[in-house]
Amino acid sequence: MASFTFFTNPMSRGQIARWALHEAAADYETVLVPWDAKPQALLDANPMGKVPTLIHHGDGGDHVVSEAAAICLYLAEVSPMAALAPRDEERAAYLRWTFFAAGPVEQAVTARSLGFEPKGQQETMAGFGSFDRMVETLAGHFSQNAYVCGDRFTMADVYVGSQVDWGLMFKSLPERLEFLAYAERLRARPAYQEAKAVDADLIAQAQS
């Protein structure tokens, strides 16, 4: 049995988790999940039926991890040989920007795509404040840093980088020079290319 069972759909946030699995050089088995027929094994592991969902078949039994950001951070912890977890001096940035991407970035992009723009006092109620403030904050970080934690790639870059990569691809983030340069560095990584090739092939098969 593989060390991990990976429930995913190639046209989903599962692409983030697959990239993380490849960065971690993890031994995993893929279970493809159609939108209209969730397998019972997925529902048993995650009653919401969401992908990605990961089951780690460890020495102490099976451990279920859902939510793409959590999957990324978990894989960094259980795959120490890949050196993807933060060093002590990197931990604050590692956690801060991962959760910034999972919170304000995700929320702001979703809100704008649904036609909601908080105004005035609404900005104090919205966790992301405003779309423009989110963009300026994220771009400001990458104007000073090559990666989330400075000059070194960590697993935080898989999650934060996926938000930037997808944002540029689907035009939900502006083509700021900071974002373009960051995405270019990430797209050059062998694990990124390997994982994307797997999902691209699965998408092509589904559409043929």
How does this structure look, described?
By secondary structure, this protein is an alpha+beta fold. It folds into 2 domains: about 5-85, Glutaredoxin; about 90-190, Glutathione S-transferase Yfyf (Class Pi), Chain A, domain 2. The protein has 9 helices and 4 strands, in the order βαβαββααααααα.
Structural features:
208 residues, alpha+beta, Glutathione S-transferase Yfyf (Class Pi), Chain A, domain 2
Brief overview:
The chain has 208 residues and is an alpha+beta fold.
Topology, please?
Elements: E1 4-8, H1 14-23, E2 28-32, H2 40-45, E3 53-58, E4 61-66, H3 68-78, H4 91-113, H5 122-125, H6 131-144, H7 155-169, H8 177-187, H9 190-207
Helix pairs in contact: 1-3, 1-7, 1-9, 3-7, 4-6, 4-7, 7-8
Which spans have pLDDT < 50 for at least 5 consecutive residues?
Answer: none
End-to-end gap:
31 Å
Order of helix and strand elements from N to C terminus: EHEHEEHHHHHHH
* CATH T-level topology of the largest domain: Glutathione S-transferase Yfyf (Class Pi), Chain A, domain 2
Strand content: 5-15%
Radius of gyration: 17 Å
The CATH class assignment of the largest domain is: Mainly Alpha
- The second-level CATH architecture of the largest domain is Up-down Bundle
Q: Please tell me the overall pLDDT.
A: 96
Shape: globular
Instruction: Please tally the helical runs, counting DSSP H or I stretches of 4 or more residues.
Output: 9
Helix content: 40-55%
Largest sheet report: 4 strands, mixed
Number of domains: 2
The strand line-up of the biggest sheet is 2-1-3-4
Structural class: alpha+beta
What is the number of strand segments?
Answer: 4
